[in-house]
Every structure is written in C-alpha cells, then in structure tokens.
Amino acid sequence: MLIGVPKEIKADEYRVGLVPATLRELVAGGHDVEVETLAGDGAGISDAEYAAAGARIVVTADQIFQRAELIVKVKEPLASERRKLRRGQAIFTYLHLAPDREQTNDLLASGVIAIAYETVTDAAGKLPLLAPMSKVAGRMAAQVAAHVLERPHGGRGILLGGVDDVPAAEVVVLGGGVVGGNATEVALAMGADVTVVARSAETVRHLSQRFGARVRALAAGPATIEALCASADVVIGAALVAGAAAPKLISAQTVATMKPGAVIVDVSIDQGGCAETSRPTTHAQPTYLVDGVVHYCVANMPGAVPRTSTFALANATRPFILALAGKGIARALADDPHLRNGLNVFDGKVTCRAVADALGLPHTPAAELLRPRPDGGLPTR
C-alpha cells in the first residue's frame, strides 16, 4: 500500500500524522510511504529522519493526494485538501464532523473512506485515539486559564493559586472524563479551588475517590451549573458525547451573569463547544470577549505542544495504521469492530450514527457496507 503524510495546513498546527518509528515498520512490511517535505518540522522531526526510516520525501501535498491509497493526518482536511480527495481513497485523522456540515458534505461527495480518530473505540468502550490529545488539552487548559486570567490578557488579574491570605481562583470544570480529570489535576497542583461537574453519579464517585476532599465533585443540573459559573473565575468546558456535537451547558444568559474578566476555556470547541457563546479561535488569536468574559476556544490546543502531542498520538494510532496497511482498508475495518467504529463516511454514506443524527443525514451502518460479497471477498471501496 502507498501511505501518504501531508504537512498540516490548519492555522498554527505543527503536529504530524506519522513518526519515523511507525514509518519504519510500514516500510519493513513492504509498504511505500511518502512524506511531504517539512511535514514534521514543527514537531522537531526532519526530512532526513523520515528518509532514514525509508520514506520518499515529496515536494507538494498534491503528489500525496494524487497517489496515496491511505492518507494519515492529524487534523480534519480543510476545503483546499478536500477538493483533492478521490473515491476509494482512505483518510485517517481527527474529523469532528458533527458540528461541521460543510466538511461532511465534501467528504460524502468525494467518495472517500473517512476514518475518525475520535470515534475509534476499545474493548472497554473508551476512545483510545482521543484520549492522548484529551490528556494534553486537559493539562493545557489549566495552564491557559492561569495565563488568560492575567490582566494584560483581559482576565480578572487573579493568580490561579492565590498567595498567603489572598484566596485562590475558583475553577469550575464541566465534565469528568479524560479532559476534565486532567484539567482538575493540574489546576489543583497550581493551587486553585476546584469544583468538577459530571453527568453521572458514577463519575462523581470516581472523581471523589481520585481527588478526595481537595475537590468538590457534583452531579449537577442546569441551575447548579448556572450558579457555579456566576461565582467562578475560570470555567473549563470539558463535555464530550462521542462523535456528537457537544452539549450546550453554558447559556448566553449564564455568560452574562459571570464576573467581568472571568475566563471560559472551551476544550469542547472541536465538537462545537459547550457554551452558546463559543466559536473557534486560533493560537494566533486565541481569545475574544462576550459580556466581559474572556473566551479561549482554540480548536487545536495540543498543536501548541506538537512534539509531545505527535509522539503521544503516534503511540495510540500505530496499531491501527499497521492494520489498515497490512490487511487493506476494507478487511481491517471488517475484522476490527473498534476500528470500524471510527468509520464516519464510506463511499458517499454516513456510517457514524452520532454524526448522522447531529446533521440530520441518513445513517448506513458500516457493517452493511463491509458485508462480504457472494464470492467471499470484501468491497473494494
């Protein structure tokens, strides 16, 4: 199989889809790998390192999109990249389709096989390819909050951990999963006063066991969330419904009741954000104000620490990339129900129920499209 790795073109995105170690395994398995020049530069991986691992370095992304059977990326293909996709080609990357009708329509029209990191599952029902970036984003969220709280960045001028007899910042974390747990851990280490809100009593119990009396863990409804936001210095949005649009937990009315200079770090922005007032921003222009509240809604937070993020992601994606290359796309999807859960679009059809429901599109189960032919073979697309 010919696998292609283009350079990411999303604003301030420095991660790369493959590392030399995985590439070396692919080449040893008889596959060809083409890497766009400087694709790994932002993560500190040189063309020479890729070449030494067996890659062919190509000058433009066009060469990769024209030739590759499997394209491995980090972020969703932008419009200029989507125009280059072709029927039967596979792309393996973060997609986040539920809030993105334009991207979904383009992928459907292209006939491409689109496999999303964020909906691949494991035997425990967790999301192993989302988890490493969720850990990074969660840990960054507390750091970002501390920075944006500073007065020069529009914040209230509060030190997250306080000092002497001056109280610490009040931090509310909405969501008790991987992002929320890691955000809580770092915020606590920085000395903040932390409250975590989770959907289920089971998650609340888990958080209470993990953090003990250092954290207030609540299974709370809208009224409690509104009250917590009104008193908070920082709200970290960490809500996730796998594959679906993020729930809107913070209304515009709630934002209007928050303290001037308070901060919302909406890590859920990749899935549309959990605040009604959230909209995607970039690392170059990360914040904006609504009713005096600072919103940080960068849609690729881990891209700011690309070396850590690239290698953490590569450790998780490696077995799936090797399977897709080694077995072929259709066979790998048919054989592994967890990888098959990552299939969002196949030959013009939406195969992820959450995406279909979010966008009001017909849903076709992946298993139907991958059903063996009468001769025992699998679909070629």
Fold topology:
Elements: E1 2-5, H1 20-28, E2 32-36, H2 47-53, E3 56-58, H3 61-67, E4 70-72, H4 79-82, E5 90-93, H5 101-110, E6 113-116, H6 131-148, E7 170-174, H7 178-189, E8 193-198, H8 201-211, E9 215-219, H9 222-231, E10 234-237, H10 252-257, E11 263-266, E12 287-290, E13 293-296, H11 306-327, H12 329-335, H13 337-340, E14 343-346, E15 349-350, H14 353-359, H15 366-369
Question: What does this protein structure show overall?
Answer:
The chain is α/β, with parallel strands linked by helices and 381 residues long. The protein is built from 15 helices and 15 strands. It has an 8-stranded mixed sheet, with helices on both faces. A 7-stranded mixed sheet has the order 9-8-7-10-11-13-12, sandwiched between helices. Helix 1 links the parallel strand 1 and strand 2. The protein is globular and about 65 Å long. The two termini are 14 Å apart. The mean pLDDT is 95.
Q: Sheet bearing the most strands, described?
A: 8 strands, mixed
Cα distance spanning the termini: 14 Å
Q: Given the C-alpha coordinates, what overall shape results?
A: globular
Per DSSP E runs of 2 or more residues, the count of β-strands stands at 15
Average pLDDT, rounded to a whole number, is 95
Q: Please give the share of residues in helix.
A: 25-40%
SSE run: EHEHEHEHEHEHEHEHEHEHEEEHHHEEHH
Alpha-carbon Rg, integer? 21 Å
- Beta-strand fraction estimate: 15-25%
Write out the strand line-up for the largest beta sheet, numbering strands in chain order: 3-2-1-4-5-6-14-15
| Stretches with pLDDT under 50, minimum 5 residues | none
> How many H/I helical runs?
15
Structural class: alpha/beta
